[in-house]
Amino acid sequence: MSEITQPTSVYATGAFWERMWRMSGINFIVFFFIAYAVYGYQPRLGASADIVVAFYQGDCTRILIAAVLSGMAVLNLMWFASALRTALADIGQDGWGGAAAAASAMLGALFLLLITVGAVLAYSIAGAGNQALASGLNDFAWTSVVLSSFPRAMLIMAATFGLWRGGVISNALFATGVAAIVLVLLGATTWASDGIWAPDGGYSRIISPLIGLAWVVAVSRVLLTETPAARVGW
Fold first, then answer.
1. Do 33 and 217 meet the contact criterion of CB atoms below 8 Å apart?
2. What is the number of other CB atoms lying within 10 angstroms of the CB of residue 1?
3. pTM, two decimal places
4. How many whole angstroms separate alpha carbon 94 and alpha carbon 171?
5. How far apart are CA 22 and CA 83, in angstroms?
6. How many angstroms separate the CA atoms of 64 and 69, rounded?
7. What are phi and psi of 212, to 5 degrees?
8. pLDDT, tens digit (0-9, with 9 covering 90-100), for 146-162
9. How many angstroms separate the Cα of 177 from the Cα of each of 153, 169, 182, 193, 210?
10. At what angle do helices 171-186 and 208-225 cross, to 10 degrees?
């Protein structure tokens, strides 16, 4: 019986695929910004039914393209969380790694729900004449963004505390991570009727997400500079 020859290409090595996983955070950010730019700015919370229908029906193709790009962003977020969990396990912080996996699962599910809401509004609901349902789903999307602060903060916390306790990041970077946790959690309190602290205001829509994205960049840099443990599971 002939012996099976192992592939010798660099693309078949575990090191190549682990680096690909560890780059997924950067890929997530790229897809996120492209999808955000393509999608456009959806109607504000409490916008009139005519404005809501005009947005989703008039920009149907663009919104559906953004849904595909957003889905790619979610996939890369899941790969990033898997790489993070593995890195935390390598340094003896598998408990924090499990927390990161749980948080990413919750966050990914919520993101997919938001993508689905936008896609179904553009694909059928906005053009079906049910203006009340369209307005309600548009408001649901904004409030879901606010509530996504919890899994986002949990993911930041799991990585920050796990990497710090494993001796991978400095006390200064740990303090920065703790500040990011607090600032992202503040996004869950943005329930004002208008202004920057409204669900569709500047803090929830811009500031809090940018803090989370900056954290992904910082952790991705840590993951890419650390030498992964030798393993055969990739």
1. no
2. 3
3. 0.87
4. 20
5. 6
6. 9
7. -65, -40
8. 999 999 999 999 999 99
9. 10, 10, 9, 30, 14
10. 150
How far CA 83 is from CA of 33, 144, 166, 205, in Å, comes to 22, 26, 16, 27
Q: Where do the domains of the chain lie?
A: 14-225
Structure tokens at 146: 């606010």
Pick the more confident residue, 142 or 2. 142
Please give the structure tokens belonging to residue 157: 């916390």
Phi, psi of 162 (to 5 degrees): -65, -50
Instruction: Give dist(CA 167, CA 8) in Å, integer.
Output: 35
pLDDT grade, residue 15 (50/70/90)? Answer: low
Per-residue CA distances from 36 to 71, 73, 145, 196 (Å): 12, 11, 14, 19
Say how far apart CA 89 and CA 207 lie, in whole Å: 31
Cα torsion through 109, 82, 73, 126, rounded to 10: -10
Q: Are 63 and 122 in contact (CB under 8 A)?
A: yes
Return phi, psi of residue 24, to 5°.
-65, -25
